[in-house]
Specification:
Number of strands: 3
Helix content: 40-55%
Radius of gyration: 15 Å
Number of helices: 5
Strand order of the largest sheet: 1-3-2
Structural class: alpha+beta
Order of helices and strands: HHEHHEEH
Length: 104
């Protein structure tokens, strides 16, 4: 992962509603959640939710599938793991001690 992409992902998560939203999508993975269900579960107005979803999509942390007029959102676990790998890249003096213990 490139540094600018990592900064974008971390910036997207550096807001409490987006972090909560992302965590909910990770917990439900691999099952998607509709925007309406996300708004109801997190008690976020739909217009505000739309803004947060756009930011997380732009950062590559979530993605959506259109099903008719409805969008179904899910966490992009590959991108999440790439970010974690980037952050842990030089841990333990460059040894891969922690990255091999991650479940995903």
């Amino acid at each position: 992962m490139e540094s600018l992409k990592a900064v974008s992902a971390l910036a997207a998560l550096a807001q409490s509603s987006r972090l909560e939203l992302f965590r909910l999508l990770v917990q439900s993975s691999p099952e998607p959640i509709s925007a309406g269900d996300l708004a109801a579960r997190l008690n976020i107005p739909k217009a505000t939710l739309s803004f947060h979803l756009k930011e997380l999509c732009h950062a590559g942390l979530i993605r959506f599938d259109a099903e008719g007029r409805q969008k179904l959102y899910r966490a992009n676990l590959g991108e999440m793991n790439a970010l974690i790998d980037y952050l842990l890249e030089n841990c333990c003096q460059g040894d891969q001690c922690l990255t091999s213990k991650r479940p995903c």
